Amino acid sequence: MLRSVPLAVFVSVAILAYAAPPRPQEENSPAEKTLQKAAGNNKAQPSCTMHGSFATTCNPYGSSSKPHAIDKTCGMTGDATSLGDQAQDKQKNNLCANGTAHSVTVDDLKNLQQAVDKSGIDYGSTHSKPPHAGPPADRSSLFTKLSNGSVRESDLVSFVGYIVEAKPGSSETVNCHCSGPLSIDVHMALADHPLNLQKAPDSATKDERNAITVSNDAALCTNSFVAETIPHLRPASLELTAMEPLVASKIVKVTGPLLFDGSHRPCKGVTPGSGDPSRLTVWEIHPVYKIEVCKNNKLDQCKADSENWQSVEATVPAGKNAQKSDKKKKVNPR
Fold first, then answer.
1. Distance from C-alpha of 233 to C-alpha of 214, rounded to nearest angstrom
2. Region for 274 from its dihedrals, namely left if φ exceeds 0, alpha if ψ lies in -120 to 50, beta otherwise
3. Most exposed: 104, 128, 274, 322, by fewest CB within 10 Å?
4. Comparing C-alpha atoms, which of 334, 328, 19 is closest to residue 179?
5. Strands 225-229 and 290-294
6. What does each C-alpha distance from 274 to 85, 165, 266 come to in angstroms?
7. Cα 132 to chain center, whole Å?
8. Is the pLDDT of residue 35 over 50?
9. Residue 158 carries which DSSP code?
10. How far apart are the C-alpha atoms of 105 and 200, rounded to whole Å?
11. Which of 238, 96, 227, 235 is nearest to 160 (CA)?
12. Are 255 and 285 in contact (CB under 8 A)?
């Protein structure tokens, strides 16, 4: 009888291990925690945990879409706890925009930003100095000053211009605070002309690096806005590895629904706010459904409705748009 006890314990442990839910993807990386602290949030950050599965009746990627582990562990509203964040995260995961895409320009997005600011509704990071209210639960309150006939949040739009920066996003509520390339957004800065951002050489001093950061921030703050691809069902053509060869070198058409990111504020002049990306407006294309590359290298030959567009896959050498392994990668958003 005594001999059977260890066996019973072993069997019980094995059953419990088998029945346990799959472990969510890795928790926040040290780099992400450092960024959160730098943004003024010194509180303990949530860890990557299971929050349902991603359920959508729409898939704009068609047969090229790829399932990822996060589809089974993080639902439409992520791990957001406030009504404002839940409403915004649902918009960030909107794969159901349809119809003919409206062509938008940087000036259009500037005008939309000014209209929102005229509404008088406070928005922006609750961790900024001074703190803001975050995204409102009633998102329609942001858009009371938009003119009749203008494009609005959730409308399908296309922008023609350049990807001037592409990098990993960060661990946040919309991805249930998971990390790793297959669990986070891909963050792009778009502009209507190349910005030729500088990269600090390894030998650069601290002062030199700071000067380059200030210069890059100024260029992004006065010329760019953001577009993001989401990890859910994301095809290889929208992974960071597919975008990197396009940065500042190709004219692209980026298509997806409009989103107003009420978790941030636009730059003040040439300076981003604490924890805010460097951009002239917080209107975004998010999530990106499709990126196309113009066959020509002049903007007047790359109108949104022209026939001069081809898929990313046709312009990137074989193997370049394959997804890299899901390792932790240093995140360095502006």
1. 36
2. beta
3. 322
4. 328
5. unpaired
6. 19, 20, 11
7. 21
8. no
9. E
10. 30
11. 227
12. yes
Closest C-alpha to 320, from 245, 230, 229: 245
Query: For the segment 302-324, what is each residue's pLDDT rounded down to a tens digit?
Result: 999 999 999 988 776 544 444 44
pLDDT tens digits, 217-251: 999 999 999 999 999 999 999 999 999 999 999 99
Determine contact, residues 169/333, Cβ cutoff 8 Å.
yes
- The residues pairing with 258 across neighbouring beta strands, listed in sequence order, are 285
First to last CA, the chain: 65
Locate tokens 């990390």: which residue?
179
Q: How far apart are CA 231 and CA 238, in angstroms?
A: 9
Q: Give the Cα separation of 61 and 287 in Å (integer).
A: 11
Token output for 46: 């949530």
> Rounded distance, CA 109 to CA 131, Å?
25
Q: Please list, residue by residue across 305-321, b when 16 or more beta carbons sit within 10 angstroms of its beta carbon and e when fewer do.
A: eeeebeebeebbeeeeb
Q: What angle do CA 181, 262, 191 make, to 5 degrees?
A: 65
- In angstroms, the Cα distances linking 122 to 41, 84, 116, 204 are 19, 12, 10, 40
Cα 185 to Cα 65: distance, rounded to the nearest angstrom: 15
The answer to whether the CB of 223 falls within 8 A of the CB of 191 is: yes
The amino acid at residue 150 is S
Q: What is the largest CA-CA distance in the chain?
A: 86
Q: Distance between CA atoms of 313 and 139, rounded to whole angstroms?
A: 36
**Token pair of 231 as six digits:** 């990890």
C-beta separation of 251 from 162 below 8 A:
yes
Dist CA 218 CA 205 (whole Å): 20
Record the tokens describing residue 123, joined without a space. 């928005």
